[in-house]
Structure to design on (479 residues):
């Protein structure tokens, strides 16, 4: 049996970890799976695009090796060229300033990082491939060379998984890990295993201390010493997408939300005269107002066109209410009402009530109402009085209330509270719509005929600027 010493041998941890935000590693892209996606995924992508459970595994650390001391005969007594090679290799072990040998360690296993990628707009791809394994680190061979050094470097490359901006990462049925709300945000979700140490086998006459075999130094069945790398970690994660947008468009199906988005941005959403044309949120970028000059050009904003909401959505009718989570990050809501419909006032109240049932704080968020389709005779006659009626429903918006709720909302997001729990337990349940703020403005428009669009944009921008100055006040107070 061989004995080993590690006095005088300094093990260089060749893979000390840097904090996750400064990890600079070779990018290993996630390969597209060629497997056929489940039929339900193809039929009903809107049920899957914003939520997925994946399993990731970081790479195992590579194994160290049992090496012979420079100048010693190899225990295998190998002859000829092999012998010469080994002697050359052994004599090349580096020494530290105090003369200790620096031995190679097994390579680190690859880490797994999830990052927010602007080019991704849904989590559907991850349903097709739900398991992601990073590579293992290289082993140290009998000559003290890391097997992967020739090709990839000592540590295995980091596996980077792209997700849409706005993805919340949680442990499966567990705690919140990260909110990847900005492009480029990233989180290390599984750390690769450390490489195994290497040992020097000493000749019998120089044995000084027999080491205890530690967890990663073991013997196999044939009594051979193994210096194992640490295993990687395996974690199951739940990814939840919450669209990042400044303005959320809400309304009944067919009200004209997608037509609005197409009229004011470059987005090309599906538009049709049947309900639930929109199944997943569409995003569009609203340019800033050039008339305000360069300094104010920052009033550009992202608009999210959501699927239509119907009465009973909170009970699962229509598309249900799950997509309402995509309003969470918006600063402003735009209620789109079909002014030519049978009972537009009731339609408006229905949508507000469904929002309240989902999350009462949505009703405290600043909002404007757009009465659409005023090109149609029925609407053109009634919209001014309708606007008057809607504009006085509720109390005048108070910023302090809004902020309190906004804080609650961000707290809920941090803790990843499910909004329905706010809904069902909150005393607000008894509140009537009248207890919530009035709209900041009510305008008439026809998105199809491009009537009233400028006025609507003026109101949207002015509302956004108000939200912005509110945030600035907050920042100043905090500083
Ligand atoms: N006359 C008239 N028709 C309009 C106007 N705006 C939209 N429409 C029509 O109303 C229908 C529904 O428009 P969409 O934009 O798809 O409505 P939506 O609110 O996105 O509907 P969902 O996606 O089902 O929720 C389409 O046939 C549009 O052409 C308008 O200003 N005037
Ligand atoms: Mg639509």
């Amino acid at each position: 049996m061989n004995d080993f010493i590690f006095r005088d041998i300094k093990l260089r941890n060749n893979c000390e970890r840097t904090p996750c935000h400064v990890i600079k590693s070779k990018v290993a892209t996630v390969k597209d799976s060629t497997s056929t996606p489940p039929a339900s995924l193809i039929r009903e992508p809107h049920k899957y695009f914003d939520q997925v459970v994946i399993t990731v595994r970081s790479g195992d650390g590579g194994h160290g090796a049992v090496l012979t001391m420079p100048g010693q005969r190899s225990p295998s007594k190998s002859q000829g060229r092999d012998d010469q090679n080994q002697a050359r290799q052994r004599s090349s072990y580096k020494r530290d300033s105090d003369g200790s040998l620096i031995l190679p360690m097994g390579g680190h296993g690859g880490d797994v990082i999830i990052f927010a990628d602007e080019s991704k707009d849904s989590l559907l791809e991850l349903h097709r491939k739900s398991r992601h394994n990073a590579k293992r680190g290289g082993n140290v061979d009998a000559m003290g060379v890391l097997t992967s050094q020739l090709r990839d470097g000592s540590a295995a490359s980091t596996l980077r998984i792209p997700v849409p901006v706005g993805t919340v990462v949680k442990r499966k049925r567990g705690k919140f890990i990260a909110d990847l709300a900005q492009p480029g945000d990233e989180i290390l979700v599984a750390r690769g295993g450390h490489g195994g140490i290497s040992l020097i086998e000493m000749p019998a006459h120089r044995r000084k201390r027999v080491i205890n075999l530690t967890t990663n130094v073991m013997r196999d069945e044939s009594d051979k010493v193994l210096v194992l790398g640490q295993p990687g970690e395996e974690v199951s994660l739940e990814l939840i997408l919450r669209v990042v947008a400044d303005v959320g468009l809400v309304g009944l199906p067919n009200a004209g939300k997608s037509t609005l988005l197409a009229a004011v941005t470059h987005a090309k959403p599906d538009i049709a005269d049947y309900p639930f044309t929109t199944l997943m949120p569409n995003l569009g970028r609203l340019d800033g107002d050039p008339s305000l000059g360069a300094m104010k050009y920052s009033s550009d904003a992202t608009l999210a066109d959501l699927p239509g909401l119907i009465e009973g959505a909170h009970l699962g009718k229509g598309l249900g209410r799950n997509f309402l989570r995509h309003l969470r990050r918006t600063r402003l809501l735009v209620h789109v009402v079909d002014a030519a419909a049978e009972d537009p006032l009731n339609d408006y109240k229905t949508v507000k009530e469904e929002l309240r049932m989902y999350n009462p704080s949505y009703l405290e968020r600043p909002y404007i109402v757009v009465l659409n389709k005023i090109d149609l005779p029925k609407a053109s006659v009634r919209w001014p009085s309708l606007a008057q009626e809607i504009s006085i429903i509720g109390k005048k918006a108070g910023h302090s209330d809004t902020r309190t709720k906004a804080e609650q909302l961000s707290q809920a997001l941090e803790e990843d509270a499910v909004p329905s729990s706010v809904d069902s337990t909150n005393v607000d349940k008894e509140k009537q719509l009248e207890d919530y703020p009035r709209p900041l403005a009510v305008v008439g428009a026809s998105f199809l005929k491009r009537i009233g669009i400028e006025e609507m944009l003026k109101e949207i921008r002015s509302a956004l600027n108000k939200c912005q100055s509110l945030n600035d006040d907050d920042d100043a107070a905090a500083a």
About this structure: The chain has two domains: 4-34+52-240, 242-478. The longest strand covers residues 234-241. The mean pLDDT is 76.
